[in-house]
Write a structure and sequence with these properties.
This protein is mainly α. About 80% of the residues lie in helices and about 0% in strands.
Length: about 190
């Protein structure tokens, strides 16, 4: 293992991989050896091989969140985003709904050109934390980016049901009323501000 680390520092990657494989052959229970090999695979662009190591580590230690994260990370680097999403779903089943995991899946769905799936991720987060208006604001902004004005407006209205004093939601609705030519609704929406 130490010899492999030295070879890595000297940028002799092939020798580092050979040495770490010998270390693993002698002690197949040491996760540090396996993680080092996965890092070497990452460094050499063998992302699928590195991901496979972390998949095996997850099977050995199913409660280790770090392994899931590295497994998904290497899948993404290996152009396997949908498999990475499945890994994150599996982690979610272990630890529950998590803001960080949802955001990663959201980003992956966007990268895959599936905004409707990205919206579903945010809606999952909103269902888990219904009083958190930050998530609703993010969803409303996303709807605006997609040109889904009606969905954005209804999301801002949900925010105002939770927090009638939310200035950002009030301004967003006021802006949409003004651009739609609805002067009465525009003036009324400014009242709370």
């Amino acid at each position: 293992y130490e010899l492999a680390r030295v070879y890595d520092v000297l940028d002799k990657t092939d020798k580092a991989i050979g040495s770490i494989k010998m270390a693993i052959a002698w002690d197949q229970t040491n996760p540090w050896y396996k993680m080092f090999l996965a890092d070497m695979y990452d460094k050499t662009g063998k992302y699928k091989d590195g991901a496979k190591i972390f998949e095996n580590l997850v099977d050995e230690e199913p409660n280790n969140q770090y392994y899931y994260s590295k497994w998904a990370f290497l899948l993404v680097k290996g152009s396997q985003a949908e498999k990475a999403i499945k890994v994150y779903n599996r982690l979610e089943q272990k630890i529950g709904i998590n803001d960080e995991i949802i955001r990663k899946k959201y980003t992956l769905w966007l990268g895959l050109g599936k905004p409707e799936k990205a919206i579903e991720e945010f809606q999952t987060l909103i269902k888990a934390y219904p009083s958190n208006t930050d998530y609703l604001h993010l969803l409303a902004e996303f709807y605006k980016q997609l040109g889904q004005t009606e969905n954005a407006q209804s999301t801002y209205q949900k925010i105002l049901e939770i927090d009638p004093q939310d200035g950002q939601a009030s301004l967003a609705l006021a802006d949409s009323y003004k651009s739609g030519g609805d002067d009465a609704s525009y003036l009324h929406s400014l009242k709370s501000i």
